[in-house]
Amino acid sequence: MRLDELNCVILCGGKSSRMGQDKSKLKIKNETLIEFQVRKMSQWFKNVYVSTKEDKFDQKFTIIKDVSEFQIYSPMLALYSILSFFKNEFVFILSVDSPNISENEILKMFAFINENYKIVVAQTPSYKHPLCGFYHSSLANTCKEFFKKNEQKIGFLFSKVKTKFVKFENENAFLNLNFYEEYEKFKRELK
């Protein structure tokens, strides 16, 4: 199996409450953050999908909507909706607000998906990154069970499913743009 035979899904269905505005629509040079991420990930993956509660974009992205019967914001609901869309395959999941991920980090994680793991995610010295890694679609029902028990954090899966944490030293590669100051700093460093 090769990386370019797999699919990528970019998550952008959150509230962006800490940012104060929709992160996916933040401008980076002449494009939005979601356009930036889709363009970048399209270099390495077969298809790139966008996960969201509703199609809020002017561009034509292939959208995977959260299951509509539930009207809450939940990473577990998003993961359930995504994994239900695919059949018997690994999918790379990335949050829209992680713009520094490169092919090097993805390939290092990809090296573990042929083993017996169902989840392969990045881990830096300070944090496990549940929204940056590979998930097997067979986990959809497990996600649904957690969701129905009101266990909404993806980290709950790690104790129930064979998970590989791939260690990285470079925290900057896993930068999350949670606050406006972080976004401004990222834009300055892109120049």
UniProtKB/TrEMBL annotation:
GO biological process: bis(molybdopterin guanine dinucleotide)molybdenum biosynthetic process
Keyword check for Magnesium: yes
Residues holding Mg(2+): D97
Alphabetical keyword list: Cytoplasm, GTP-binding, Magnesium, Metal-binding, Molybdenum cofactor biosynthesis, Nucleotide-binding, Nucleotidyltransferase, Transferase
Residues of the signal peptide: none
Reaction it catalyzes: Mo-molybdopterin + GTP + H(+) = Mo-molybdopterin guanine dinucleotide + diphosphate
SUPFAM superfamilies documented for this protein: Nucleotide-diphospho-sugar transferases
EC number: 2.7.7.77
GO cellular component, one term: cytoplasm
Residues reported to bind GTP: L11, C12, G13, K23, D66, D97
EC main group: transferase
One GO MF term: molybdenum cofactor guanylyltransferase activity
Magnesium found in the keyword field: yes
Subcellular location: Cytoplasm
Cofactor(s) needed by this chain: Mg(2+)
InterPro entries (UniProt xref): MobA-like_NTP_Trfase, Molybde_CF_guanTrfase, Nucleotide-diphossugar_trans
Residue stretches making up the MobA-like NTP transferase domain: 8-152
Primary residence: cytoplasm
Family affiliation: Belongs to the MobA family.
Domain topic, free-text comment: The N-terminal domain determines nucleotide recognition and specific binding, while the C-terminal domain determines the specific binding to the target protein.
Function, in words: Transfers a GMP moiety from GTP to Mo-molybdopterin (Mo-MPT) cofactor (Moco or molybdenum cofactor) to form Mo-molybdopterin guanine dinucleotide (Mo-MGD) cofactor.
Name the UniProt record assigns to this protein: Probable molybdenum cofactor guanylyltransferase
Record gene name: mobA
